[in-house]
Specification:
The complex is a heterodimer. By secondary structure, chain A is mainly beta. Chain A contains two helices and twelve strands; from the N terminus they run βββββββββααβββ. Chain A has one domain: Protocatechuate 3,4-Dioxygenase, subunit A, CATH 2.60.130. Classes of the chains: A mainly beta, B mainly beta. Chain A: One of its GO terms (molecular function) is protocatechuate 3,4-dioxygenase activity.
Amino acid sequence: MRFDSVETGVYPTLVYPPYASTAKRGPTQAPLRIRAAEPVQTNIAVSRNLILPHDTDLTSHGQGEPLGEKIVITGRVLDEDGKPVRNSLLEVWQCNSAGRYWHKRDQHDAPLDPNFYGFGKMLTDDEGRYRFVTIKPGPYPWGNHHKAWRPAHIHFSLFGNVYAQRLVTQMYFPSDPLFDYDPIFQSIPDLAARQRLIARFSLEQTVDDKMLGYEFDIVLRGRDATPMGL
Amino acid sequence: MASNITTSQTIGPFPHEAWRWGVDASNALISGAPTVTISGVIRDGNGAPISDGWIEAWLPDAVAAESAQAIPGFRRIPSNDDGAFCIEVSLPTPATAGKPVLFATIFARGLVKHQFTAVFLEDDSGLAQSEILAQVLADRRATLIARKLGDAQYHWDIWMQSDKETVFFDYV
């Protein structure tokens, strides 16, 4: 396993004044590049028993259908060599179609949907593919600045096959008019890196008249990321 | 060659419900080894506690001792309203001198990329021979060392900024 250095601009700028919360929280020292045997060789092993059937269908958690636009999202998780990241835990969380999170601290004056909680988890398959069904999240205001609204997004948490591949990110939707005004999205200097966070609409993945399809591939750090035995 | 990796974004303030299962699965500890507790506070550049942060601890040398756990060698812990956290750590037997007792990943609102770090115990006899600490500037090594408070109790604060800024890693 090898971890190349990441080019300047691919990661967000850790202290980015337009995103106010970074001012006192983003580290000011450059990360120290080190060699450490364990993190690049091992990772957590999540039992399939911890993944329940309804974890991949976020629309199935209530008594009825959630409000909003039902969608399916799928993609492959790959390493930098294009090899699949297999049997790897992936978690998602998001707000509902009205822009409200199922969270006690979310004060946005939008309705909670009793049939939509907005969280799921799954394992990638032997090809590194994942797939889940959900509702398109709404934009929401967040108080960072005047007229601050987040583009619609879904949070992704990935473990990869080894510890140092860990990634938390957000998936956005094509052609969102809020991209140019969102300091979280804008904290990524590299334009191509920003574009890689935008899912692609897919007619192929669209399911009849049931739900629209999106594809979102994810490339984790590391070369030759699937160790022997996985 | 241009990198094609997927870049990072903040966890935001709202992952708690989605991540709760991992907290539940990792913190009711069943361990076949002796344990110690490492507690502390995550602080921002002003010293203010970060009350919506998260720590994930990875204890590769404790996996065997925790084979009865739902997720052996792993902890997921949200900071509390005071920014405080507490991690119960299985000590490997035999002891592995000079190695971290855990690798930690830090997440929070306002932290647009999660940060990797590690912590050692101050009474580890192998600190002077540690391959990882040897790569850290001498005057910053203390940020990675948990101070002994008492029997099986250690203290370790995480500082995101300031002259106490914790050393964060990027792996080769």
